[in-house]
Amino acid sequence: MIRRILAYADGDDLVASRDFYVEVLGLEVAMEDPVLGLRSPADPAAQVLIPPPGMEDPAPRFGIDVGEPAAVDAAHAEALRRGLRVVHPLTNEPWGVRRFFVEDPSGTVVNVLAHLPRR
Fold it and tell me: Helices (DSSP H) in the chain: which residue ranges?
């Protein structure tokens, strides 16, 4: 089950980006490390993520939260079965997500992720 689709913005100036999205558009800060995560106060699933410059190469165009780590594993297995190019390996990140990046058939890089259970 898809929980949310996450938009990514460029992060050349994280302070200016934070000010813009918070003060101009009314989003609230959900996290600041390792990326600036902003969300709608009315719908926390509506989010924009802003990674710092050079954090990820290649940088994903958007993210899809598939809900559970097992769903990340299933999507990864299906991507491999179909011969799609995985450009960031299946990884448990220290900030609490399991993810991988895959190119869609047109070459768009997608971050497929789910939050890991809290320990």
Answer: 14-19, 69-81
